[in-house]
Design a protein that fits this description.
It is a single chain. The chain has helices at 14-25, 37-51, 66-79, 106-128, 162-181, 207-220, 224-227, 229-236, 263-276; strands at 5-9, 29-34, 56-60, 85-88, 132-137, 187-193, 247-249, 252-253. An 8-stranded mixed β-sheet has the order 3-2-1-4-5-6-7-8, sandwiched between helices. The protein has 9 helices and 8 strands.
Length: 287
């Protein structure tokens, strides 16, 4: 990865920090795109100390805010001559319905609509740097839900944590359609399941769910060090060069459900997402 630049969202903790560490160890310029600058700077110092790679920097990014996404993208375009990998790692699971400043449900805004907008805004730099990669951290939990395109920005739900599962389903559909639209550009798009990983993402869950989850997590889940392996593989491996539109788990391609492979569903989600992220006529387009 010498000479390559990688943007990693949520690179200040959990899988993201371990992924950032491994990619920095391979010699890349790593940009930690994080909401919490204090923890991001601590993560940067830790990564630099462990990898001896001084080329690790921190930039502010709140994926739940379209204003923040636009400011971050503008800064990357201004300061970076190339972008070889855009790794959408950041994710969150809200414990109650919260609407963002853009009137989008918080979990969906952070996990799907934010990455959707950021990819659009950085696509020209990715094309300029081709061969380059977009990597999306999804989850096998998508299999527990369906994707209701009539309610992609929910204001109520009977079980709020399921919105995390829905956002992961959306990640996969987005990646599949992104790969289709990028065909022939030299930019690939793939998504992955990191495994069930103890990242602390469920710490905000209601206590009735949190304590049983904690027992299961500590007993059966991977550590972040183990969980970052597929992210690093899809972002860096020569074996994935030119591969696009695929879903990986344990560093191997894995089959998706029929629904997640539905091209019409992916196209409809794309159209709905374009409206909700308020794409402007002057914004870059994928195709």
């Amino acid at each position: 990865m010498n000479g390559k630049t990688v943007v990693i969202t949520g690179g200040n903790g959990g899988i993201g920090k371990e992924t950032s560490k491994e990619i920095a160890r391979r010699g890349a310029r790593v940009i930690l795109a994080c909401r919490n600058l204090e923890t991001a700077k601590k993560a940067r110092d830790e990564i630099v100390a462990e990898t001896n790679n001084q080329n690790v920097i921190v930039k502010k990014l709140d994926l739940s805010s379209q204003e923040s996404i636009r400011e971050f993208a503008a800064e990357i375009i201004r300061s970076e001559p190339r972008l070889d990998v855009l790794l959408h790692n950041a994710g969150m699971a809200a414990n109650k319905i919260q609407m963002t400043e853009d009137n989008i449900e918080l979990t969906m805004a952070t996990n799907h609509f934010g990455p959707f907008l950021l990819t659009h805004l950085l696509i020209d730099l990715l094309k300029k740097s081709a061969p380059s990669r977009v990597v999306v951290v999804a989850s096998e939990l998508y299999r527990l839900v369906s994707l209701n395109l009539d309610n992609i920005n929910p204001t109520r739900t009977w079980f709020v944590p399921r919105l995390y599962y829905i956002s992961k389903y959306a990640n996969i559909c987005f990646t599949k359609e992104l790969a289709r639209q990028l065909d022939g550009t030299g930019v690939t798009a793939n998504c992955l399941h990191p495994g069930l990983v103890d990242t602390g993402i469920w710490e905000s869950a209601p206590a009735v769910f949190r304590w049983p989850l904690k027992l299961v997590v500590k007993t059966l889940f991977k550590t972040p060090v183990q969980g970052c392996k597929t992210s690093v593989y899809v972002a860096c491996s020569e074996e994935v060069e030119g591969v696009t539109g695929k879903y990986f788990s344990d560093c191997k391609e894995k089959r998706l459900s029929r629904g997640a492979n539905d091209e019409n569903k992916a196209k409809k989600l794309w159209e709905l997402s374009e409206n909700l992220v308020n794409l402007k006529p002057t914004d870059p387009r994928i195709y």
